[in-house]
């Protein structure tokens, strides 16, 4: 089987510039729509939602939207309720995205919980642990002795 040719502007790894550009446009559009309360749903209007990232498929027909409640976590049930409310209004949100874009098809929106902040917080807690601090200090001392 023959490998696909790569163009000279892309190494083939990661998203293309077009995917990044379209993803950012979708992220800004959804953020604005949710901030202005243009979706009429009491569940969505009750919480502030952060749209952290949007990843698009190479053909731009699917966009995975990573969302989190602003100001922290809602817990498992609250996060699921937020996702359920967003999924109920996928068509309306997709319509807003379509109006803001100049591509042939508005992408299918898929919502996921953005766990980036949780992972960052977990990493921060891990590095503040005394045992880890001791190990880091020991390693730094060893590096100084070698250098």
Automatic annotation (TrEMBL):
InterPro entries: KH_dom-like_a/b, RbfA, RbfA_dom_sf, Ribosome-bd_factorA_CS. One of its GO terms (molecular function) is ribosomal small subunit binding. It holds the Pfam family RBFA. It is found in: Cytoplasm. Keywords: Cytoplasm, Ribosome biogenesis. Gene3D superfamilies: 3.30.300.20. Its main location: cytoplasm. Signal peptide: none annotated. Monomer. Binds 30S ribosomal subunits, but not 50S ribosomal subunits or 70S ribosomes. This is Ribosome-binding factor A. The gene is rbfA.
